[in-house]
Design a protein that fits this description.
The complex is a heterodimer of chains A (567) and B (378).
Chain A (H helix, E strand, L loop, with lengths): L2 E5 L9 E7 L5 E8 L5 H5 L7 H6 L8 H14 L5 H27 L6 H4 L4 H8 L11 H16 L20 H29 L8 E2 L2 E2 L2 H5 L1 H33 L14 E3 L2 E5 L2 E4 L2 E3 L7 E2 L6 E4 L5 E2 L12 E2 L5 E5 L2 E5 L11 E4 L8 H10 L3 H14 L9 H30 L16 E10 L2 E10 L2 E8 L1 H6 L10 H6 L11 H9 L4 H4 L21
Antiparallel strand pairs in A: 1-2, 2-3, 4-5, 6-9, 7-8, 9-10, 11-16, 12-13, 14-15, 17-18, 18-19
Helix pairs in contact in A: 4-8, 4-10, 4-13, 6-7, 6-8, 7-8, 8-10, 10-13, 11-12, 11-13, 12-13
Chain B lengths: L3 H17 L8 H7 L4 H14 L7 H10 L3 E7 L5 H6 L5 H10 E6 L7 H14 L4 E6 L2 E2 L8 E2 L4 E2 H10 L1 E7 L1 H5 L12 E2 L10 E3 L6 H14 L12 H4 L10 H5 L10 H4 L18 H4 L23 H4 L22 H4 L8 H10 L6
Parallel strand pairs in B: 1-2, 1-3, 3-7, 7-9
Antiparallel strand pairs in B: 4-8, 5-6
Helix pairs in contact in B: 1-4, 3-4
The chains are: A alpha+beta (567), B alpha/beta (378).
Chain lengths: 567, 378
Amino acid sequence: MNKRVVIDPITRIEGHLRVEVEVDENNVIKKAWSSSTLWRGIEVILKGRTPMDVGLIVQRICGVCTYSHYRCGTEAVENALDVKIPLNAKYLRSLMQTSLYMHDHIVHFYHLHGLDWVDVVSALSADPALAAQEALKYTANPIAAGEGDLRAAQERVKGLVDTGKLGPFANAYWGNRTYKFTPEQNLIALSHYLKALEVQRIAAEMLAIFGGKSPHPQSLVVGGVTSVRDMLSPARLQEWKQKHAIVQDFILRAYKADIVMAAAAFGTEPSVLGGVNVKNFMATNDFVLADGQYMFDQGVIMNGDLAGVSDIDPDSIKEDVTHAWYDADKAQHPYEGTTVPNYTGFVERDTVYGKLPTVDGDGKYSWVKSPRYKDEPVEVGPLASLLVSYARGNKVVVDSVNGLLEATGLPIEALFTTLGRTAARMLQTVIVAEEGLKTFDAMLVNMQSDESTYVTPEIDSSKDYVGHAMIEAPRGMLSHWIRIKGGKIENYQAIVPTTWNAGPVDVNGKVGPYEASLIGLELEDPSKPLEVIRIIHSFDPCMACAVHVMDYKGTSLGEFKIDPNGF
Amino acid sequence: MDTHAALYQRCKTRLEQLKQTAPRQTVTLDEKLKENGITRREFMTWSASVTALLALPLPFTSLVSEAAELADRVPLIWLHMAECTGCSESLIRTDTPNLDSLIFDHISLEYHETLMAASGWQAEENLEHAMEAYKGNYLLAVEGAIPTANNGAFLTVGCKGHTGMHIVKEAAEGAAAIISVGTCAAFGGVQAAAPNPTGAKGVQDVINKPVINLGGCPPSEKNIVGTLMYFIMFGKLPALDMFNRPKWAYGARVHDNCERRGRFDAGEFVETFGDQGAKDGYCLYKVGCKGPYTYNNCPTERFNHHTSWPVLAGHGCIGCSEPNFWDDMADFEKPLGRQLLHGVDATADTIGAVILGATVVGIGAHAVASLFAKPLEE
């Protein structure tokens, strides 16, 4: 007799996600459903507004990968209007992206994903002196892992536990047997969790230097970047560089070391050695190193075949809504898509927690659509980006990946796992931090002879324009698609990393990366599904992004009245 | 308005009340400060800066530090509705790092979906437990707008499949105070922009209790933490403006304290981004700055540990702490001219919020505004 498990809310992510699984009598997952439970309708709101405001509005799709949509939306408009922005603007945008990654990936690993790997309660019984010795095994100069640091971290959390008031640590899955760290290793990671709270603030300040604030920076415009005074100020440039050094130091001496430690401890734990069941990956080229040179390569890998990487064909991207809460009669290309919400709700049934509303797997069950590439599901994200660059023979990436495999003694196949996905995110952070300095230096050289940061865009209201942009966001490939008519936005669509990963099953019965990653996983206790949460977190879900759909095209907006001036 | 003496007394009484409640922690703040290498002196310096931030006279400094030590007695429930998590991201960027994380250790964070370890059924249990155990005593913070169309079906949270609207109403019942963190929770925000397909509303429009609105997309970390501290110190809501925003943070126009105000008065304007004026820090009014219509402390507090704010980065203010700004302030890179805002008439008490060129702003501004005003029929 199979049992249904409902997990809602999936916490420590951006947004609202429900996951349901069905387990057999041995607690092995046979079926899984990923359901997004919020719709906001941003693309509907964009219709009829000026293309110049696109970036600021679409940035509000998400405050975690803040800046990603801002840049992508701005560049989609630039592509439509054929605006060629100055080189300094490219560099500044790239440095802001570097800052974003250094912030976002650290927060993801320590504050969102970390508690799936680290048993906080176990850390309380560690011996700080032994733990300090342990830390030296993974790096020669650990950070926040001396005996004193570790004792302080332990005392601080003890204070919470002794009163029975665990605050954010309350009622979690402590003691689950798939936690594999020793108490000492848990303590090292816990100390880094606390230290990372401080470091991530500094990383966020890096983005604010050229962006004005973080989250939601405000220095990009169609045609370039506005923070020319910050660029021209040696004090500001040094401020960025100093903060970069502090954050990079933490990445190398804590983040990287902790992943090596996790690889050693979790290397034989079955629940983290699966989790990659859709072996198709896609990534785009991004991070400007110099004019026309990128840090990461673009391409598609099908069936895990690293020898057969091909170029992305944008015309092969379609979205299917068979099991999403929308009406449409066939899969659609982003320029042509239509969206009419059609919410059908949940179905009551027995679960391990008693009777609950659950997803209707045979019908519609999510606000996320199912994008497909040549009719196949695809995974995007740091793992996809590294695999594509690795397959392309990108020297920096090849050396970085091989270095990690050497340090951990793991084979290349280990990348195709939950653990590999988490390790790839760390490697990407290391590369972005290191290579970002080259972008910085290239900008310094260019500034000597060229101070331009902006070109005025031309828009002819008697003409129609079509454009799109593809970038790598922290969670994977992001594309925005726009049509402009009469000087206003006629149609807009964002296809977002989490949509690729989290979408429901499609019309052909093909299952997306989230749902596929859970099949065959054995749970220790179905009512406390830590193993599921760990795998889903390894994708770094960003649901507010994923539910963005495009607007009604052409005819009726039903009851909606568009008045772009709001008067 | 309380006089300072009365306020001081009120604050003392509140702290006395808090002292009577059982502590949640065995480690005192002093011990924690020591562990984290923070001297008593640094702590007092921080307290003084919070005092200044809250626009209180210096004698209040000791009360601020005392309040910080007692803060652990206030349970906090933080709900996520139709949002982007930007406000939570702003919260985690609070500066003076060790201290702020200590302060948050001292608030008992009962429920916060981005930060809590528990998930699913267990997370929902935490929420239900906190609402029951601390009935009448917890702080409720809401991030995001409430979708009301289709009976709220555009958002459900939790295994029981309740709508966001249902959850907010229930949590508001037992809350000692309710804080709408960010423009979405305060006024509906981006998802409420025309044509508002999900019927998104601010918290104050779906419940019948007073709400403190922290406008901003997102509000700065200072405005979020400062507001929590006010409640802890005084056990009441701070003085609010016409949109229920705390006056200590939203009492002045961005334009009033802008670092480029001198340029405005001198008539020196950036004509296009990246021009010589932009390099020299000229006023951004002609490229769309909405500072004259926007109430917030961005120019004085800035964001991210005083690192920057949009105007410093060369982009005009977009008015993000104001109701309906997505519709009323667009186009963001064109001057607004002399349109009425918020649909209110230019009566004496709201004139400052309504129109550039009112006597408060001064004749120079008026003249400039007339020059770039876009015709209303546009």
